[in-house]
């Protein structure tokens, strides 16, 4: 005890430095998650061969997918088997079903106090909150326990009154989990699977209070639901992480806008980008500059546009003009008309200050409008920084395992302190959408490109037309392609390139990096070469890379 | 260690009391500080596990132009991890299949030649040797302590994104244990994870939150649209690999233990598994096991399905003994015998 009293004094003198390196014991977090999975698994059931469900009452009521009721009705069967994780199996009948929430309630034929899940507090839903799902996804043999996955509430679809109608989650789900439950990290049931990932949507679920309300009027089912839980948040590590994500997303929400782009003739679509189709609905834009510059994924149509409207988090609708497309990155820049009321710009953090493994959140706003205004919650996925300096486009892309898809492409990658780390690049082949391989243009590269974007010049990858080799003597031109800029500039095989625009380049990597980072087709480039004993500088205009 | 933790805890106290002195710490601020502590721990963990992760390059002689001599090219890439500071590296067999030459890329970008030393073809793991000292070896986790829900980090070279070193890291949890993913290569007893694993992660490590190896990533479930991750990855469990290590150190194609038994399911309400056939003069035949015998335990562990049987048998290399408890008619008996299996030379490259 004595030692404890003395140490703080000592540390105050030393300063706060040791505290910055303070880290939690991940073993404790492991334990919390393992205990939670253990506690929840007994309430999760397999319904028939193809569905999941959850026990919601000690008296033997199970909530599952509407498809179960439909299947029984269509096949004329009266009962279906329901199996718990302890392998105990019961015969069940359908008590009620509701197509709007895509749910059904089953009554189990068994004399036992059933383990059951309790509904959570509906007021406590926020994007970024972690949730756990347990279900019988494919790859799980019939006799093996269900799979546990972790994700966040990625989006909340609300009605005009602001009630949550549907939740979207980044937790992995797969066939077999239809009708499966989702829990918050306090172990409360927050919703039931509505649809598995399809198109631009991740897994959708129906909030539990909405389901309960649907059955409340019916006396057969009114008592099926246990009382909602309104527990005070326990001070657990998992809960801190969950709430931390939500706080970070909430504080940065205003930095992303929902862009609706219209064209009189909407048939002139931009060709599929890097093999993936371009989104047609609203897209996300990230505010990168106080003057109202927004960076977004490429618009779904070619210019000219009939109108571009930016829907802000605070309910404004701003006019926007399209500045340019940057095809190298798959991003576009737009200018918002701020009408004298500036939008908040996030504090930034360049990639040099980032650590691999740190948490990142990929924010988006490409959600359908509600009553003519932007969906208030926005969209978020979370993950860690997986790598830096990736991709040949701009070379320096950050990589994250946070899901990247149509809803947050062009959105903001932020850290726990809501600092802007970069703009999320649209998913591309072969990496795919929401595959765990997401790429982000770091904020310093965004800012480097800003003057060009503001000036409204489109960018396509540029090329010089030389074959290069790293040799003893330096970066040597092996051959010059006929009819390309290098030939016109007077470059020859055997020349050794030493500088580009006065900046030293020593090898092929540095050469391609320079072009990828700083140049577009049509830009001029000064190339300094050594030809024998002679040093000269030649000028070329880069061609479009075919 | 204990003392260190105590110091850190008191440090937090000092900080927060100072903050309170300036005005109450908001709820949000307190939560973010907690979350940042978790983040710091993950960052430290990542820095550590990357050092023992490698990218694996599979070179083969390929015909680039018809009629011209073949040229050696990289035809496949994967991942691996270092388990011995003297250069022992594990990867998947399917990562190095058909190679003429293997190279590994260390986390710092150094490229080193490696040779294949041994493999267990059926179960898709191979031991490479890379002649260099001072590598950062990872330790194995105890498989029996792995539990669904615990945090994991996958590291490796997905889609060739770590060709210059700097392994790519993804975070997830253990989704399930004892999964059976057969076909092509067999993954009995696999660990299932939602940490994002993609083509190129094969052969790479799955680490626990302590930086210990839970297993070797090798297979993923995919959608019909393409080979991208859907949150279901399968990992060869550490314990299975470790059981084979003594045999693997001797080199060659190490065989799983052979008993000569063919097993089938029992009637739904009957415990155990049924012997359907016993190969003549196999270890099981010599021990006196017969078709119709109903096995209820293997090496003291209960057998309740053919899946459990497959999963447990897969843990046993040749030379290990197998002890089975079985019912013949209604009489319980047990037999113990050594599993056979010859180590064959690796194919000439």
What does this structure look like?
The complex is a heterodimer of chains A (546) and B (349). With 546 residues, chain A is α+β, with helices and mostly antiparallel strands. Chain A is built from 9 helices and 32 strands. Chain A has a 6-stranded antiparallel beta barrel with strand order 1-2-3-6-5-4. In chain A, strand 22 and strand 23 (420-424) form a beta hairpin. The radius of gyration of chain A is 28 Å and the shape is elongated. The relative contact order of chain A is 0.09. Mean pLDDT of chain A is 87; it is low at 1-19. The longest helix of chain B is centred in the N-terminal third of the chain and has 24 residues, at 27-50. Chain B has 6 helices and 19 strands. Chain B is globular. With 349 residues, chain B is α+β, with helices and mostly antiparallel strands. Helix content of chain B is 21%, strand content 40%. Chain B has helices at residues 2-21, 27-50, 93-96, 238-249, 283-287, 306-313, and strands at 53-62, 71-84, 88-91, 101-105, 111-120, 125-129, 151-156, 168-181, 187-193, 205-208, 213-223, 226-237, 252-253, 261-265, 273-278, 294-298, 301-302, 321-328, 331-338. Classes of the chains: A alpha+beta (546), B alpha+beta (349).
Q: What do the pLDDT scores of chain B average to?
A: 89
Q: Give the mean pLDDT of chain A.
A: 87
* Main sheet: strand order of chain A: 1-2-3-6-5-4
The interface involving the most residues is between: A-B, 75 and 77 residues
Overall outline of chain B: globular
Apparent shape of chain A: elongated
Low-confidence stretches of chain A: 1-19
Query: What structural category do the secondary elements of chain A indicate?
Result: alpha+beta
| Gap between N and C termini of chain A | 73 Å
What is the count of helical runs of chain A?
A: 9
């Amino acid at each position: 005890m004595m030692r404890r009293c003395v140490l703080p004094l000592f540390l105050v003198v030393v300063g706060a430095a040791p505290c910055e390196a303070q880290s939690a014991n991940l073993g404790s977090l492991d334990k919390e998650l393992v205990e939670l999975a253990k506690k929840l698994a007994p309430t999760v059931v397999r319904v028939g061969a193809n569905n999941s469900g959850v026990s919601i009452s000690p008296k033997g009521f199970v909530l599952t997918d509407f498809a179960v009721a439909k299947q029984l009705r269509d096949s004329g069967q009266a009962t279906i088997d329901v199996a718990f994780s302890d392998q105990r199996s019961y015969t069940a009948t359908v008590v009620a079903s509701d197509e709007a929430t895509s749910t059904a309630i089953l009554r189990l034929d068994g004399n036992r106090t059933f383990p059951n899940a309790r509904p959570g507090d509906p007021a406590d839903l926020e994007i970024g909150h972690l949730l756990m799902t347990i279900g019988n996804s494919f790859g799980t043999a019939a006799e093996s326990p269900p799979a546990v996955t972790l994700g966040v509430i990625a989006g909340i679809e609300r009605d005009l009154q602001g009630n949550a109608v549907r939740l979207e989650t980044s937790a992995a789900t797969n066939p077999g989990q239809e009708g499966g439950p989702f829990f918050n990290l306090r172990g409360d049931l927050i919703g039931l699977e509505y649809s598995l990932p399809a198109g631009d949507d991740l897994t959708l679920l129906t909030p539990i209070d909405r389901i309960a309300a649907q059955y409340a009027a019916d006396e057969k089912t009114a008592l099926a639901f246990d009382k909602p839980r309104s527990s005070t948040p326990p001070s657990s590590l998992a809960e801190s992480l969950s709430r931390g994500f939500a706080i970070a997303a909430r504080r940065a929400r205003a930095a992303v806008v929902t862009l609706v782009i219209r064209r009189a003739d909407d048939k002139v679509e931009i060709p599929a980008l890097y093999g993936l189709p371009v989104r047609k609905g609203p897209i996300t834009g990230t505010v990168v500059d106080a003057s109202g510059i927004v960076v977004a994924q490429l618009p779904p149509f070619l210019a000219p546009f009939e109108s571009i409207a930016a829907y802000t988090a605070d309910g404004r609708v701003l006019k926007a003009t399209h500045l340019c497309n940057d095809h190298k990155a798959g991003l576009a820049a737009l200018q918002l008309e701020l009408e004298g009321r500036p939008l908040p710009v996030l504090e930034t953090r360049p990639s040099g200050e980032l650590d691999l493994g740190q948490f990142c959140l990929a924010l988006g706003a490409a959600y359908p409008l509600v009553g003519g205004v932007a969906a208030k919650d926005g969209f978020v996925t979370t993950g860690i920084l997986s790598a830096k300096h990736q991709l040949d486009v701009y070379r320096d892309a950050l990589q994250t395992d946070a899901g990247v898809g149509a809803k947050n492409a062009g959105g903001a990658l932020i850290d726990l302190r809501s600092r802007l780390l970069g703009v999320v690049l649209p998913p591309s082949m072969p990496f795919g959408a929401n595959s765990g391989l997401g790429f982000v243009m770091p904020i310093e590269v965004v800012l480097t490109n800003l003057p060009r974007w503001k000036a409204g010049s489109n960018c396509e990858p540029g090329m010089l037309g030389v074959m290069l080799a790293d040799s003893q003597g330096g970066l040597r031109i092996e051959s010059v392609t006929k009819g390309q800029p290098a030939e016109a500039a007077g470059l020859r095989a055997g020349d050794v390139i030493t500088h580009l625009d006065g900046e030293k380049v020593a090898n092929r990597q540095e050469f391609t990096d320079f072009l990828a980072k700083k140049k577009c087709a049509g830009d001029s480039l000064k190339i300094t070469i050594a030809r024998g004993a002679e040093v000269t500088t030649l000028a070329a205009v880069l061609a479009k890379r075919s | 260690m204990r003392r260190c933790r105590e110091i850190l805890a008191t440090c937090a106290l000092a900080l927060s009391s100072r903050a309170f002195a300036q005005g109450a710490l908001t709820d949000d601020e307190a939560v973010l500080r907690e979350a940042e502590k978790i983040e710091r721990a993950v960052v430290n963990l990542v820095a550590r596990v990357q050092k023992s992760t490698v990218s694996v390059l599979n070179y083969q002689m390929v015909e680039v132009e018809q009629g011209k001599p073949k040229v050696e090219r990289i035809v496949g890439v994967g991942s691996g991890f270092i388990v011995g500071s003297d250069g022992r590296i594990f990867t998947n067999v399917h990562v190095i299949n058909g190679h003429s030459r293997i190279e590994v890329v260390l986390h710092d970008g150094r490229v080193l030649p490696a040779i294949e030393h041994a493999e267990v073809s059926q179960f898709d793991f191979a031991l490479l040797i890379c002649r260099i000292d001072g590598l950062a070896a990872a330790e194995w986790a105890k498989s029996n302590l792995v539990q669904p829900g615990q945090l994991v980090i996958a590291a490796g070279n997905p889609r060739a994104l770590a060709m210059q070193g700097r392994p790519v890291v993804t975070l997830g949890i253990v989704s399930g244990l004892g999964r059976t993913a057969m076909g092509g290569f067999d993954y009995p007893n696999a660990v299932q994870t939602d940490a994002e694993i993609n083509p190129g992660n094969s052969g790479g490590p799955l680490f626990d939150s302590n930086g210990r190896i839970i297993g070797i990533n090798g297979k993923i479930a995919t959608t019909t649209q393409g080979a991208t991750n859907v949150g279901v990855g399968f990992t060869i469990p550490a314990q299975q690999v470790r059981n084979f290590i003594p045999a693997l150190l001797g080199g060659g194609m190490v065989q799983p233990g052979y008993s000569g038994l063919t097993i089938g399911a029992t009637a739904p309400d009957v415990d155990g598994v049924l012997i359907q056939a016993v190969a003549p003069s196999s270890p099981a035949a010599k021990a006196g096991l017969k078709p119709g015998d109903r096995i209820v335990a293997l090496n003291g562990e209960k057998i309740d399905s053919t899946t459990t049987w497959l999963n447990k048998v897969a843990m046993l290399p040749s030379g290990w003994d197998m002890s089975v408890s079985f019912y013949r008619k209604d009489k319980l008996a047990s037999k113990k015998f050594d599993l056979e299996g010859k180590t064959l030379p690796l194919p000439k490259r």
